[in-house]
Amino acid sequence: MSASILVVEDEPAIQELVAFTCTSNGFKVRRAESVGAAQDAIRAELPDLVILDWMLPDRGGIDLLRELRADERTRALPVIMLTAKSAESDRVAGLDMGADDYVVKPFSPRELASRVRAVFRRRAPQHSGEPIAYGPLTIDPQRHEVSVNGAVAKVGLSEFKLLKFLAGHPDRVFSRTQLLDNVWGDHVFIEERTVDVHVLRLRKALAPVGAQHLVQTVRGLGYRLSERPE
Ligand code: CA
């Protein structure tokens, strides 16, 4: 279940370098060479992160970034801008527009890989492969294990994915549609009430370690993982 990265870059040599760096670090890669192609790719399947060139043949990468941030489906999608421009004003503009980080060309594959991992750690820890701690919970993706003070909870695969996602974004409320998109992948035809079933199973799985209250229903909105009172 490796994370997927969409590489949007029109220069073939740089696209190849970025794609190679990502695949050799264990990520799945798709490529686009224009804003239009990137929009098609994102519409077809939501990636987990976008590496986005500043200068593209049809439109500016920053235009795509603006659109991603304006759309509920892609608002939280992590984006790293690639730019040949080292001018501070461009970097600031990119960050102001909601880019999570930027990499200035020329860059080393090692630098790019470490930026990608850092953004995943910060924005989508469920893809970093490292254990996620929230409140009394420790979620270890490598060992596929959920524990509280060393006591292990028996959690099914779907419930594990759901918990990992919620723990990566604690205290944030997600609608059933958002959970389907992010946990099961969008364009997967699962009914929204299936989410309710998995939430119930997750609570049941966490009950023996006394953590079921962390999975909270927010009436009319959806679900969240939180230590706050319900
Ligand atoms: Ca370019």
Can you offer a commentary on this structure?
A hairpin with a 3-residue loop joins strand 10 (215-218) and strand 11 (222-225). Helix 6 (157-168) crosses helix 8 (192-206). The chain has helices at residues 12-24, 35-44, 61-70, 88-96, 109-123, 157-168, 176-185, 192-206, and strands at residues 4-8, 28-32, 49-53, 79-83, 101-104, 132-134, 137-140, 145-148, 151-153, 215-218, 222-225. By secondary structure, it is an alpha/beta fold. It is elongated. Strands 2-1-3-4-5 form a 5-stranded parallel sheet, with helices on both faces. 34% of the residues are buried. Calcium ion (CA) binds at residues 10-11, 53, 55-56.
Topology:
Blueprint: E1 4-8, H1 12-24, E2 28-32, H2 35-44, E3 49-53, H3 61-70, E4 79-83, H4 88-96, E5 101-104, H5 109-123, E6 132-134, E7 137-140, E8 145-148, E9 151-153, H6 157-168, H7 176-185, H8 192-206, E10 215-218, E11 222-225
Parallel strand pairs: 1-2, 1-3, 3-4, 4-5
Antiparallel strand pairs: 6-7, 7-8, 8-9, 10-11
